[in-house]
Amino acid sequence: MNKGTGGGVIAAGFSLLFFSFLFGPLIIMVITAFNSSSFPRITPWECFTTEWFAVLIGNDRLMNGLANSLFIGVGVVLISVPIGLAGALALSEMGPRLRAALYTVLITPILIPGVVLGISTIVFWGALGRGVGADYGSIFYDGMFLTLAGQVTFISAYAMLVFLARLQRFDPTLTEAALDLGASPGQAFRKILLPFLSPAIGSAAFLTFLASFENYNTTVFTILSGNTFTTTLASKVRHGTDPSLSALAVIIIAITLVGAMVHEAHTRRSQALRDGSAARSKIYGNPVLRVIVHPLCVFAILIGSISFLTYQGSQYDASVCKQQVLDEKRARQEQLLEEQRQRIKAQKEAAGATETGTSVKKSPSAFGGAFGGAAPKPVETPKSPSPFGNAFGSGTLAPKTD
User: Fold this and answer.
1) What residue ranges do the domains of the chain occupy?
2) 180-205 confidence digits (pLDDT tens)
3) How close are the terminal C-alpha atoms of the chain, in Å?
4) 340 φ, ψ to 5°?
5) Which of 154, 188, 158, 187 is nearest to 170 (CA)?
6) For residue range 80-108, what is the model confidence (pLDDT) as tens digits?
7) Is 28-34+43-242 assigned to CATH 1.20.140.10?
8) CA distance 97 to 102
9) Average of pLDDT values for 4-21?
10) Selection from 199, 179, 180, 200 nearest residue 189 by Cα
11) What's the pTM value of the predicted model, to 2 decimals?
12) Positive or negative: CA dihedral 172, 177, 180, 181
């Protein structure tokens, strides 16, 4: 084997281990979502079932947490994206020294632990509510509001970083030219800067929504008596998990794959149209293939395929297979009990045979005959009828004579 072949084998083995490490847990969770076992496992395999998706949807507390997370996530996007954009524009208009100082201030919340942010949010808004005389039913003590405020304090910095990266490629002379030609600052912003920032706005909105949706460290303190999707999941894992969480993982993976495929189709189509290679391409030159690879068509095909598989899975009845598995478990349990009875019976028979074949002569001595002979009989002392032990008897009180 030459060096090139050996290097290829090592690279292939390393790649296999790397992708197994990345996707192995996801594959395991996908498989366990369709096993009828009440505990997430691959082996032993019992029956194929889709009932865990119904269990997931039927969990009211989890669904309420999902609704709360979606509401908070949308609110965080609507607040964090404008704040991040304003911070990025302010930094781009400042001098180097002041920019560095303000950048440090705006980026600091990302570096603070989420536990500290959660506790400080409760303390700050609670003190503010007491200062204005608000009662405990006001917004200052509302878990949804506190979670929204606590997440915005650091998630808006993520949006600012996205806008700063985009603004580094912007030519400020474009807005200056628009202002020189009579455009107002608002018109220059809406017609020149905002279209340039539109990709960054989409990226920042998506990033802030995900950061809000999956946040736990801050939310677990600020949500108070309420719950979000992540806090409910953490509570469910602590108190005992089941394959419904694996079903949730399957749904998330499916949504991610659909979004990735549609985005890839959109990117390739945009690049082909921008480069002018769409007419020369075998795919985009064909009217039928051009419609098939359109992002909307790709999305419709994927959603249709998932809907068909979901319908087919919901029609599958696993009750017969589950009954067979239950009967096998009962038969196995009876077999184990019978084997235990046989062992106990054999042990009793062996113990009886040992007692019958060996005669042991017991000694009447309390020490087991260690000192030989018969044990001495105790000397019996006649009892006196007097309760004083005959101390005042006729013989004891008579005077002694020499």
Assistant:
1) 28-34+43-242, 244-344
2) 888 888 888 888 999 999 989 999 99
3) 130
4) -65, -40
5) 188
6) 999 999 999 988 888 888 888 888 888 88
7) no
8) 9
9) 83
10) 179
11) 0.74
12) negative
